Amino acid sequence: MTQRRGESALIWFRRDLRLGDQPALAATAERAERCLAVFVLDERLLAPAGAARRIFLIRSLRALRAQLAGRLLVVAGDPVEVLPELAGRVGATGVHISADCGPYGRQRDDAVRAELAKTGIELTATGSPYAVTPGRVRKRDGEPFRVFTPFYRAWQDHGWRAPAGTSSSTVDWIDPATVAESVPLTEPPAPDGLTLPEPGEAAASATWQAFRDEALVDYSEDRDRPDRPGSSRLSGYLHWGAVHPRTLLADLADDLPGAEAFRRELAWREFHADVLWHRPETARRNYDRRFDTFEHDSGPAAEAAFAAWAAGTTGYPIVDAGLRQLLAEGWMHNRVRMVVASSLSRICTCRGARHFMRHLVDGDLASNQLNWQWVAGCGTDAAPYFRIFNPITQGQKFDPDGAYVRRYVPELRAVTGKAVHQPWTLSAGPPPGYPLPIVEHAEER
Ligand SMILES: Cc1cc2nc3c(=O)[nH]c(=O)nc-3n(C[C@H](O)[C@H](O)[C@H](O)COP(=O)(O)OP(=O)(O)OC[C@H]3O[C@@H](n4cnc5c(N)ncnc54)[C@H](O)[C@@H]3O)c2cc1C
After folding, report:
1. Cα–Cα distances in Å, from 89 out to 27, 40, 125?
2. Topology of 285-444 in CATH?
């Protein structure tokens, strides 16, 4: 389609905070000459997010605004009311988005589409935060996949488009000050000692390039080692769309060592999004409904156990290190997420998943809820429900020298070697200030 001279459009950014490889921007440029860039702070969507995710979002918006030389309008409110109002003010013929595939986003977009249609404005979705838009990869009989490995094969067979060559000069940006006043991009107070990654598209790209050039070669092994910088740490960028997975997959096409293992992890993200797309109720309920009747522990002892878990004072060093890393960095290593989640599943998976969603910068409904369910054995590819990741053997295997534990648990810094994973066995007992384990692991199992 050729550009329509003089026409205006809106591009409504959501989880796609970048200008490169941005199909919605390419679609905007095809249909309009002038474009208003908008982000809507929607409290209903932000409610589960704590300080780390909110701060990272605010900083990411600042980075996007800087890329656009200030031409990003940030407003607060209900998109169903805000978008038609702004579209009317600039005389837009269309509003462009990258599809949101989550349950709330899909309903919201339907409502926005219906509202815009009342004044003849079209909402056009081009692309999504995934290499393959959820819902597209199916079994031969048209049914969705329930198991990862066959999904992974079919996902690769389906393939994805090449990156879209877009940049800030793709359209003429409308000065937002001529349309409405932006809300200030004020960060909520940060908890003491919180360290977050650099926000924005340039930082995402630099993180990817450093990982690709230095760590990808050892990724298949090192991705399981929390004591090493073995994984990409791209999850926050992928969640907010500072980089698109298609950009990464295009780079992996050269079959670099480690590429296959990394492609597989990106595919897990796509699989969970696909599952949530087909089964939106799994955001709140078990994928495997037989577990709906499973009773979790409750009462004062369970409350105390949850509080100790959340604070990282369970007495299991690798669990505590993970939970403290979460509070300090808004991120936790994948292997440790599994151990930490498994250590809580008897008390209550939902509460643990909510705690993760509050503190993770990459907190993502599909990946979080379905990984929690996977660990608890009530999700896809289910592990037997009695399998609990033993925090001692997991620690000894994946943090063999204890460096990860000592980094996040200062009370244990004087304990050398792998003894750090069982401080209660030291002749003098655990060092001062470090608790005894709260639940006897064998008993829990
Ligand atoms: C209980 C639990 C909760 C989780 N919650 C989230 C969440 O809210 N948001 C989130 O992005 N990931 C979540 N994960 C998946 C995984 O732990 C993180 O994606 C990963 O640790 C991010 O670090 P990285 O970018 O260095 O990963 P890398 O190892 O470098 O992987 C590259 C990318 O692949 C994707 N990925 C890797 N593993 C998984 C996986 N198991 N499931 C889905 N995507 C994956 C991520 O986008 C990641 O950035 C969760 C895992 C568990 C066990």
Report:
1. 21, 16, 21
2. DNA Cyclobutane Dipyrimidine Photolyase, subunit A; domain 3 (1.10.579)
